[in-house]
Amino acid sequence: MTDAPVLAVRGLAKAYAGRPAVDGVSFRVARDEIVGLLGPNGAGKTTIINMVLGLLEPDAGDIAIDGIDLARRRAAALSHANFSAVYAALPGNLTVRRNLRLFAGLYGVSRAAERVDAVVAEFGLDALADRRYGLLSSGEQARVGLAKAMLNAPALLLLDEPTASLDPAAALALREHIVQLTRGHGRGALWTSHNMAEVEAVCDRVLLLSHGRILLEGAPGELVRAHGAASLEALFLRLAGGELA
After folding, report:
1. For labelling alongside 208, which of 33, 39, 68, 214 has CA 20 to 30 A away?
2. Does residue 241 register a pLDDT over 90?
3. Which of the following CATH numbers is that of domain 1-80+156-245: 3.40.50.300, 3.50.50.60, 1.10.630.10, 3.40.47.10?
4. Do 56 and 50 form a contact (C-beta atoms < 8 A)?
5. How far apart are CA 223 and CA 92, in angstroms?
6. How large is the average pLDDT for residues 109-136?
């Protein structure tokens, strides 16, 4: 573990057909911190996550994961990160255990069989391990997806709508597990969500994006009070309506 933040983004920019999708964004995610990346559709959240994941090349700016420059040492940087989202389904015809073994191999996890066994036990997947992923409930699939994201013990977790489509009980259980995995382990998480109550419950800081720029940054409660809003959702609606631009 180093003293560097788990994620450092500086001057990040990306344009499509001459129109900026991300426009000079800079922020950090510290260890033991959960940061919410918020904004209406088209604000640039997914573009930022895809650039951090190395799926898109920035037009400008720098990204460092766990102190490792993504542009210069892509494989090394990405080995310190992982991703989970309910829409990112795993192969449905494979069992849970075979999926985990597949991804452990893709991630280059050492002693993969032992690591898969450990993750199955940690996430309480023993009863599901030999069932096909495609036959699981949405809550079970989300739990397996999070287990997959922890195979390489990442310093940075990227969570894109991790509880979307889950019932309240399954969403609460998954949120609590993510918090347990992050805080106290030197790990950080970047979390996107449209569920403002969820964000207020789990995020230490939030970044509110509009048209590819960060307009507001701070602890959820502090931002709500500073702008005289009734809640984070009310503040978000003002942002989406252009009142904070």
Report:
1. 68
2. no
3. 3.40.50.300
4. yes
5. 42
6. 94
